[in-house]
Amino acid sequence: MREHGYLGSDVSIPHLANVTQNYSGAEIAGVVRSAASQAFNREVNLNTISTGEIKTKNLEEIKVTANDFELALDEVKPAFGQDTVDLDGCIKYDIVPFCPEVTENISDMDHIINELNSPSGTPQQVVSVLLHGPKGSGKTALAAYMAKKSEFPFVRVVSPEKFVGYGEHGKVTQLAKTFDDAYKSKYACIILDDIETLCEYVRIGPRFSNAVLQALKVLVTRQHPKPDRKLLIIATTASADFVRFTELEDAFSLHMEVPMVTTPAAVKMLLYGRDGYTNEGEVDKIAKSLDMDLGVNTLFMLSELARQYAPGDDVPCDTFMRVLRLRAPRKVAHDSLQGFE
Questions:
Q1: Are residues 201 and 63 part of one domain?
Q2: For residue 50, what pLDDT band results from cuts at 50, 70 and 90?
Q3: Which positions, given as ranges, span the membrane (predicted)?
Q4: Into how many domains does the chain fold?
Q5: DSSP string for residues in 196-241
Q6: How far apart are CA 292 and CA 205, in angstroms?
Q7: Residues 131 and 241 occupy one common structural domain
Q8: Same domain, 56 and 161
């Protein structure tokens, strides 16, 4: 296309090669056809479409631009590649290193990714990391953030919502297929989100799916079947008891604790400057009134909800605390609101 003058000057072939790493030959051909179709459709006169009239009299003047390829890439998805929609959906809020522990977690994950990417790095082909912390602490967001940052060509998110309606056999089959697909890529990352729910664990009983649990143990500890390929597994859990009692924690090579927001300084760092939280005095009041531990995602969710109740542009402390009473767990909210009224 370049040789025959059909490519626009803004089309970068190296860039296209980079973003189509996991496309097969047939899929790349589909992208090219779709881009050409986008370029042609741009020149079609919709008012006279029945007659086949086009705006450009000379068909050789039609150029396929970079925007045409972007539209084509949105239309033609590879069988293997990054689950960008899932990853973006996991990162609802900003990743803020509000305490040394979060900074260390990000630094450690960076080191793991660099080691996997480097030819002279770790000889270990499979690295598994278990992120554990209370609900709302941002475990899934951190896992998705690191997966995107890795720029691995294959990234998949395995979450309970994708298995609604599946029986045990169906779940095990899909888990095995995800790992088999990952083995086909030179660099791959799998996020196992909320593994206790994947295993159907409930505290009443307790009950869980032993078939799914055993499948996870086997898949996470399995050696990579192909040489010179790397796989990063990141799992999240909010139930330390479950992974300990089922011995699932032993399947992971590394463990990282995702901390809660525990200090007024951390609350202020997370809130101050966000929409609705530009009044430093009110933010200081909120930070000092939150005599409790909150997950960072929970804090951001409450902050956005409080904006809807705020009478003005900035959220006053009393509005935020009223929302906290409505949305936070009863015991936590009660502990925080003691003495506030």
A1: no
A2: low
A3: none
A4: 3
A5: HHHTT-BTTTTB--HHHHHHHHHHHHPPPSSTT-EEEEEEEES-HH
A6: 30
A7: yes
A8: no
